[in-house]
Specification:
It is a single-pass membrane protein. About 65% of the residues lie in helices and about 0% in strands. It has 6 helices and no strands.
Length: about 130
Amino acid sequence: MRRDGNWRAQRFYRDPRHGKLMGVCAGLADYFGWNVTLVRGLAIVALLWFNVVTLAAYLVLGFVLPTKPEALYDWDADEEYWRSVRRSAGDTFRDVRHRFRELDMKLQHMEGYVTSSRYDLDRQFRDLES
């Protein structure tokens, strides 16, 4: 991400480099962390149902949105971080819940070891070695 404040990774850009027509669907997919094929499919369905409104909105976004800068991110890890932040709330919650479960299991294992007779035996062996 550029440090001078001109470009922001959280901003909605159109991405013609990864897009098919004007890069609006690719920009939407990048901004929300969605699959670009899914966004394109939804755009086609919307074009079939709401043809004039969808076409007008697409064209307005195509001309109004700024193009995604080539040097938006300083390095690949920066881009990966911003992609992970944009994931859905359900995915983020699931990852956090999974991490807490892993930590809880490790804590249970440590508590079991510390309260066991094996811990006392290991401590006595360490005392003998010193």
